[in-house]
Amino acid sequence: MTGVEDRGDPLDHRARRPVRRWSGDWASQEPPPSPELEVLIPTVGRTSELAVTLAGLAAQDDPAFDVIVSDQSETFTSANEPSVQAMVRVLRAEGHRVDLVHRPRRRGLAEQRQFLLERSSAPAVLFLDDDVWTEPGLLSRLLDALRSLRCGFVGSAVQGLSYLDDRRPHEVTTFEPWPGRVLPESVRPGNTEHDRWPLHNAANLAHIAATLGVDRDAWVAYKVAWVGACVLYDRAALIAAGGFDFWPGLPAEHSGEDVAAQWRVMERFGGAGIVPSGAVHLEAPTTILERRVDVARTLFTDAGARPGRTPSSP
């Protein structure tokens, strides 16, 4: 059972006041509402990208959300960079709690994500990379999808808009909408479900969306191999599946920890992507320069490994 309740249509905000305070209420002393979701952002060494990411969040009218940033830069970049601090102040003025945490010891992204998960408390948590701009209305669509589908996670795969004119019909042949309820699936390297991964290359989802005729502010759920950079989890489902608790058995130089966590959630609760995506990759150089271990392949394909434990676990 998942922990996110269906509270009606969060997109039906035309008849009510948006949660986001407008500039006329920025000086209000009224306490902010309890968050329906928390945005969890791991970051290191990024300034302009993080500022753009926070600016995207500041443009979201709904739902009520808070933000936790875990900063592993040596100099606590998020607390010192003017552009980042400006957007933090905007978010707080709009009624969002923003928590900046300095954690200079780097033990890998899986540990970072587990720390953020343990620090969160809202029924839904959005893991958002620090180089992603979110379209206004995206958080509402994601939460609407999670509540409607009642699965473990929904994601908006990031699009690189420099590829908008690069059409790749051979990479979208595996696109398959969910016809109704999202069901648990098992994804492994080499199986049919895994073959969906090219869907999220370049600007493929933007091209798919153009063929679907989706109404404005609506979404279509589809089957995924995994979703990177912008994923909304039912927090209870993610914790039940183990979260990122495999991190102690990993070297700091790893990747694919998000994939491994999603595969564990998908096996128990199911997961989906939504289109249109509305999440834009800033196409900045990666900060993960060493990737000695692919966590998903290690966790799910090592001899004797079972989902939910690392190969080195007893």
From TrEMBL:
Question: What Gene Ontology terms describe what this protein does at the molecular function level?
Answer: glycosyltransferase activity
Q: Ranges for the Glycosyltransferase 2-like domain?
A: 39-163
Q: Name one Pfam family in it.
A: Glycos_transf_2
Which pathway does the record list?
Cell wall biogenesis; cell wall polysaccharide biosynthesis
* UniProt-annotated stretches for the region Disordered: 1-35
Superkingdom of source = Bacteria
**Swiss-Prot/TrEMBL keywords:** Glycosyltransferase, Transferase
Residue ranges, compositional bias (Basic and acidic residues): 1-13
Assigned protein family: Belongs to the glycosyltransferase 2 family.
Name the record gives this protein: Glycosyltransferase family 2 protein
Q: What species is this protein from?
A: Labedella phragmitis
